[in-house]
Write a structure and sequence with these properties.
Elements lengths: L1 H7 L5 H22 L3 H8 L3 H34 L5 H17 L26 H26 L2 H24 L3 E10 L15 H7 L2 E2 L8 E2 L6 E3 L15 H14 L3 E7 L3 E8 L2 E8 L27 E4 L2 E7 L6 H9 L4 E6 L15 H16 L2 E6 L5 E3 L5 E2 L8 E9 L5 H5 L2 H20 L20
Parallel strand pairs: 1-4, 2-3, 4-5, 9-10, 10-11
Antiparallel strand pairs: 1-14, 5-6, 6-7, 8-9, 11-12, 12-13
């Protein structure tokens, strides 16, 4: 709200326009410096050393500066919309903010950073974001900012009418989410065992191929519970899920025969297929499905790679992993699982594509060990930011989500967005739970990110208008609805 009041109070001239850009850049820099404060710690943890320290600091500065600059652009668009274009603040503010979120999530190659959009901030109370099944995560962002825009307008006008409208909008959308949560009829489709081995292997590219005995030792005990509770009972699960890059080798290569045999033995003892992360053809971060009789044809190759960690933008294979193609599903006992890896949880389009392919359940495998930083900064907030995206993915598609993390947090999410069966960080664990889903596709998954695209198109129109005029702030008209004194100019 204060930001909207500030922009609306700027002068309607090039000086005011420039101040809106610079001020938004500063605010954006502070905002993203906080959200991504874990980046340098994580990059250093992935590859400790003097050179890594400099690279980590430079990467962090580049990310924050780039996003701050992009925010400044949309700050200028917002200023022009409400001070020269006649748009009310309660509309111009959410349009600009949502367009900014959509843009940073759709930058080319691995430059895209959709991490922690504003709508995701409410996922601790998933019923509040229930409308995401209609409008998606960016629709929730639009709603949050529109409510704040109405409150800012009420402050500027010294009027109760916009404040009342904000209250109605907040109560109506949030209340609908709670009502909808009670109306859902989820069904349990499978029992899944999520394994958290507390193994930090695979935090960087190029780790030596593990030996079969190392893999066997990292797997849970099969049978009666071990003293640490790291066990799974035979015939208790329909599927066992292991984390990202659990095997730092290509299971299809002849050299990995012993490793695959160790997992096959485990699968046979449990009496269930095993889904696990491994290297695909030595150049992909992949997921495989193995049954007691061997590997199945299923293989998913990660499509959205972590910038700088897994891939240098616009560089080819020698800079990291290759980008995967297609949306294959892993089918077990008639249930179709859509698998995505690590950072892909922040991409609404990934979960939507898998659901459109026919996925009944979504599975996220990850290794968040590199998000723990280095002492004394271990356990950065990224460890909680990351799974928050899965709550939004569950609500958008009204679908159950399974998450296996190498060191935690491993968990389940129901179609309402409620987390259950969560493990503790940093301890070997097995969590066995029923997974739920809801029949049919949601409106959001049928139509896509309509609000995000519409806001971006409008922002592009405003930007084109500014560029065609040759200078910012050339239209001297004031927006009567935003004049602090309520007079027409």
């Amino acid at each position: 709200m204060p930001y909207g009041v500030w922009v609306a109070g700027l002068t309607d001239d090039p000086a005011g326009q420039a101040l809106a850009v610079r001020g938004t850049m500063v605010l954006g820099g502070l905002y993203f410096a906080g959200i991504f404060h874990w980046v340098p710690l994580a990059l250093y943890a992935a590859d400790p050393g003097p050179a890594s320290t400099a690279l980590a600091a430079a990467s962090y500065a580049l990310i924050v500066a780039g996003l701050a600059g992009l925010a400044g652009l949309f700050g200028g668009i917002l200023h022009h919309s409400v001070r020269s274009g006649g748009a009310p603040l309660w509309l111009g503010l959410p349009v600009a903010w949502t367009a900014f979120e959509w843009t940073r999530a759709h930058l080319p190659d691995s430059l895209a950073l959709p991490w922690l959009g504003l709508g995701t901030s409410l996922t601790s109370v998933p019923e509040l974001v229930g409308a995401a099944e209609v409008v998606g995560a960016r629709g929730i962002t639009f709603w949050i900012v529109a409510v704040n825009g109405l409150l800012a307008t009420a402050w500027i006008r010294r009027s109760w009418a916009p404040a009342l409208a904000a209250l109605v909008a907040a109560a109506a959308i949030g209340g609908w989410g709670f009502w909808r949560a009670g109306e859902l009829e989820p069904r349990t489709v499978a029992r899944v065992a999520v394994v958290q081995p507390d193994v930090a292997r695979g935090t960087k590219v190029g780790v030596d191929t593990p030996r079969p005995q190392e893999i066997a030792a990292a797997l849970p005990t099969v049978g009666e519970a071990s003293p640490a509770g790291y066990a799974v009972l035979p015939a208790s699960a329909d599927l066992v899920v292991l984390p990202e890059l659990f095997i730092r080798a290509n299971p299809l290569s002849p050299s990995a025969t012993g490793i695959v045999a160790a997992v096959r033995e485990f699968s046979g003892a449990v009496g269930a297929p095993v889904l696990f992360g491994a290297l695909g053809s030595m150049s992909y971060n992949s997921a495989f499905l193995l049954r007691p009789d061997g590997l199945t044809p299923f293989r998913y190759d990660k499509r959205h790679l972590v910038p700088l960690v897994e891939r240098v933008p616009f560089q080819r294979r020698e800079s990291g992993y290759e980008v995967g193609e297609g949306w294959p599903l892993a089918e077990v006992s008639g249930v179709r699982y859509g698998v995505f890896i690590c950072y892909e949880s922040s991409y609404p389009g990934v979960a939507r594509a898998l659901r459109l392919q026919g996925a009944d359940v979504l599975v996220n495998i990850t290794n968040d060990a590199w998000l723990e930083g280095m002492d004394p900064f271990r356990r950065t907030v990224a460890l909680w930011q990351h799974p928050a995206h899965l709550v939004m993915r569950a609500v958008e598609g009204r679908v159950g989500v399974v998450r296996s993390a190498a060191t935690g947090l491993s968990l389940f999410v129901d179609p309402v967005g409620r987390i259950y069966g969560a493990t503790e960080l940093g301890s070997p664990s097995v969590s066995l739970e029923g997974v739920q889903t809801v029949a049919g596709l949601t409106i959001y998954h049928r139509l896509g990110d309509v609000i995000g695209v519409a806001c971006t198109l409008f922002a592009l129109f405003v930007l084109a208008r500014l560029l065609l005029r040759g200078r910012l702030g050339s239209d001297r008209r004031r927006c009567p609805s935003l004049d602090p004194h309520g007079s027409r100019v």
